[in-house]
């Protein structure tokens, strides 16, 4: 299907070696290759499109990332929030449900078009370290050796290099989610969220797709609820306010997880740069990773290009500086609200207060909060 993808090849030497061909790895690889930088992109999967979940809600501007309209499964103009006793609806803008499969296809095509060397079925098993956290080489399960001047860890929550070099905790809780692709006759431009103890103490969602389909899901920030995911998902489907326009006609379930850690502002050491879930770059509040990860990839590539051009690894630090200036305050605010929401889900009276809070906010303010790009004053004023 895609050209230039290799299986069990002999490794080699490159300017940049990237571990992980998810969103972060693919974006970084194609941007580097456009700058005539030689890139090895290594992934443990045989099929790069073997994805654990297929859609996500996002505020991304697809034109910024040179993606086609095909990646948008549905344009959204309204968001509704349900607790046991209340519901609140707000108009929305610049929101879309993203077809993750199509987005990955387009990024893979960009990688192959620009000459990225993609190695599949190549799980990394070892890394050779020199002084000052300099990675000298990495080895895959077949014994192939890959050497780079700079390495990118885009291996997701596995954090194959970020954990080894102390940029990520070796273990941490994960927010987990489960979802169905269902028949749907509701509003194709409305997303719906469910919060509170009625939904097993987690949160649910309905993301409309094309052709009268929708993603119906349930998740939680509390790892202890992992065993209750199907119970929570069943509660969402059975809610009498929506059950008449949802029909589960496909029992295939999809699932995913995101790390729950402190806000990380250290993403580089030696000749290693980390992008994506390997350093918890998903937004803590909304679980929206792609927009933030694509932006982080652009920042990382800029710093890597400068470091290679001037042969100065110290310039990799510019990535952390730019990321912190752009995102740290927003992430810290989102982390604070994430902790509050985790407690709200446990009690009906708290979720009701939360919905009343949203009811009296302006639509633009709600959009900023839901997008994870809000100021503390947005919580205090309409």
Question: Gist?
Answer:
The chain has helices at 23-34, 100-113, 229-238, 290-310, 317-344, 348-359, 363-371, 376-380; strands spanning 5-7, 12-19, 39-42, 55-58, 72-82, 87-99, 117-120, 124-129, 135-140, 145-153, 174-184, 190-195, 203-208, 213-220, 246-247, 253-259, 268-269, 272-274.
* CATH hierarchy class name of the largest domain: Alpha Beta
- What structural class should be given to the helix and strand makeup? alpha/beta
Envelope shape: globular
Helix content: 25-40%
Based on the structure, what is the oligomeric state of the protein chains? single chain
What does this 3D model show about the protein?
The structure is a single chain. It contains eight helices and 18 strands. By secondary structure, the chain is of the alpha/beta class. The protein has two domains: 5-51 and 101-170 and 266-335, FAD/NAD(P)-binding domain, CATH 3.50.50.60; 73-98 and 173-260 and 344-380, D-Amino Acid Oxidase, subunit A, domain 2 (D-Amino Acid Oxidase, Chain A, domain 2), CATH 3.30.9. Strands 1, 2, 3, 7, 8, 9, 10, 17 and 18 form a nine-stranded mixed β-sheet that branches. Strands 4, 5, 6, 11, 12, 13, 14, 15 and 16 form a nine-stranded mixed β-sheet that branches. Helix 1 (23-34) packs parallel to helix 4 (290-310) and helix 4 (290-310) runs antiparallel to helix 5.
Keywords:
single chain, 382 residues, FAD/NAD(P)-binding domain, D-Amino Acid Oxidase, Chain A, domain 2, nine-stranded mixed β-sheet, 29% helix
Helix and strand topology:
Layout: E1 5-7, E2 12-19, H1 23-34, E3 39-42, E4 55-58, E5 72-82, E6 87-99, H2 100-113, E7 117-120, E8 124-129, E9 135-140, E10 145-153, E11 174-184, E12 190-195, E13 203-208, E14 213-220, H3 229-238, E15 246-247, E16 253-259, E17 268-269, E18 272-274, H4 290-310, H5 317-344, H6 348-359, H7 363-371, H8 376-380
Parallel strand pairs: 1-7, 2-3, 2-10, 3-7, 5-12, 10-18
Antiparallel strand pairs: 4-6, 5-6, 8-9, 9-10, 11-14, 11-15, 11-16, 12-13, 13-14, 17-18
């Amino acid at each position: 299907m895609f050209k230039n993808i290799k299986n069990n090849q002999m490794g080699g030497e490159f300017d940049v070696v990237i571990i992980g061909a998810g969103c972060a790895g693919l974006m970084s690889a194609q941007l580097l290759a456009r700058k005539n930088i030689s890139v090895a992109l290594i992934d443990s999967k045989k099929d790069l499109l073997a994805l654990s979940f297929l859609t996500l809600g996002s505020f991304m501007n697809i034109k910024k990332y040179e993606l086609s309209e095909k990646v948008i499964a549905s344009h959204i103009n309204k968001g509704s929030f349900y607790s046991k006793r209340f519901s609140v609806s707000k108009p929305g803008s610049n929101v879309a449900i993203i077809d993750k499969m199509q987005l990955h296809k387009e990024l893979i095509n960009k990688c192959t078009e620009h000459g990225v060397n993609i190695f599949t079925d190549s799980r990394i098993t070892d890394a050779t370290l020199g002084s000052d956290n300099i990675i000298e080489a990495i080895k895959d399960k077949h014994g192939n050796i890959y050497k780079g001047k700079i390495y990118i860890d885009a291996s997701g929550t596995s954090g194959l290099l970020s954990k080894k070099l102390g940029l990520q905790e070796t273990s941490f809780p994960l927010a987990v989610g489960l979802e169905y692709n269902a028949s749907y006759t509701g509003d194709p431009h409305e997303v719906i969220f469910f919060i509170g103890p009625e939904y097993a103490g987690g949160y649910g969602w309905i993301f409309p797709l094309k052709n009268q389909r929708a993603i119906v899901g349930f998740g939680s920030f509390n790892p202890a609820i992992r065993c209750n995911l199907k119970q929570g998902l069943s509660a969402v489907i059975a809610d009498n306010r929506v059950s008449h326009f949802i029909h589960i006609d496909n029992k295939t379930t999809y699932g995913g997880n995101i790390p729950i850690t402190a806000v990380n502002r250290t993403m580089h050491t030696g000749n290693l740069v980390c992008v994506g879930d390997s350093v918890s770059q998903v937004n803590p509040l909304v679980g929206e990773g792609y927009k933030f990860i694509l932006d982080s990839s652009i920042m990382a590539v800029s710093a890597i290009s400068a470091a290679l051009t001037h042969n100065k690894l110290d310039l990799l630090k510019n990535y952390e500086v730019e990321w912190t200036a752009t995102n740290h305050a927003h992430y810290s605010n989102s982390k604070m609200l994430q902790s509050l929401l985790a407690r709200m889900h446990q009690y009906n009276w708290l979720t009701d207060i939360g919905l009343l809070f949203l009811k009296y906010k302006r639509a633009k303010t709600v959009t900023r909060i839901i997008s994870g790009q809000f100021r503390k004053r947005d919580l205090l004023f309409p």
